[in-house]
């Protein structure tokens, strides 16, 4: 029953918090475990993040494909204050996501805390769970800041 109780707990948390993503992820992993399809787990671990990010990017780029964003809008990205700040924000977020991935590779048990924190953010702060990487990146930033002041 390695990991099953934690996955069931995450499934229940996802249902209670009305987080379809957390509930579905836990449910899919439970099905994989109970169907004895464990050979899929390393593939998900290795490529799941890339596939998830691919679908996230596809969803974000739909307005471009639909022609709703013009070349003029694109030029505004490089010439307006909001556009420049978006570029800086994107670069910093990407850096934090990389740091979060490193942290999760070193301390994978943190994922449970990140998920509980995400559920808290969904339920009490009206947040949207886009994945644990940014949460891990912020955690890495917090840990680095604490280590600076020790």
From TrEMBL:
<dbReference type="Pfam" id="PF04284">
    <property type="entry name" value="DUF441"/>
</dbReference>
<keyword id="KW-0812">Transmembrane</keyword>
<dbReference type="InterPro" id="IPR007382">
    <property type="entry name" value="UPF0756_TM"/>
</dbReference>
<feature type="transmembrane region" description="Helical">
    <location>
        <begin position="48"/>
        <end position="65"/>
    </location>
</feature>
<feature type="transmembrane region" description="Helical">
    <location>
        <begin position="77"/>
        <end position="98"/>
    </location>
</feature>
<keyword id="KW-1003">Cell membrane</keyword>
<protein>
    <recommendedName>
        <fullName>UPF0756 membrane protein SAMN05660649_04167</fullName>
    </recommendedName>
</protein>
<dbReference type="GO" id="GO:0005886">
    <property type="term" value="C:plasma membrane"/>
</dbReference>
<comment type="similarity">
    <text>Belongs to the UPF0756 family.</text>
</comment>
<feature type="transmembrane region" description="Helical">
    <location>
        <begin position="110"/>
        <end position="143"/>
    </location>
</feature>
<keyword id="KW-1133">Transmembrane helix</keyword>
<keyword id="KW-0472">Membrane</keyword>
């Amino acid at each position: 029953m390695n990991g099953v109780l934690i996955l069931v707990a995450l499934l229940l948390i996802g249902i209670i918090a009305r987080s379809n993503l957390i509930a579905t992820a836990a449910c899919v992993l439970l099905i994989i475990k109970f169907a004895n399809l464990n050979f899929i787990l390393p593939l998900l671990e290795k490529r799941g993040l890339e596939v998830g990010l691919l679908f996230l990017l596809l969803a974000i780029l739909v307005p471009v494909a639909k022609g709703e964003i013009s070349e003029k809008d694109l030029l505004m990205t490089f010439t307006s204050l909001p556009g420049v700040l978006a570029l800086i924000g994107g670069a910093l977020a990407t850096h934090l996501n990389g740091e979060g991935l490193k942290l999760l590779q070193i301390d994978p048990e943190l994922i449970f805390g990140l998920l509980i924190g995400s559920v808290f953010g969904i339920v009490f702060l009206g947040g949207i769970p886009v994945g644990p990487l940014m949460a891990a990146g912020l955690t890495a930033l917090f840990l680095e800041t604490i280590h600076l002041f020790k």
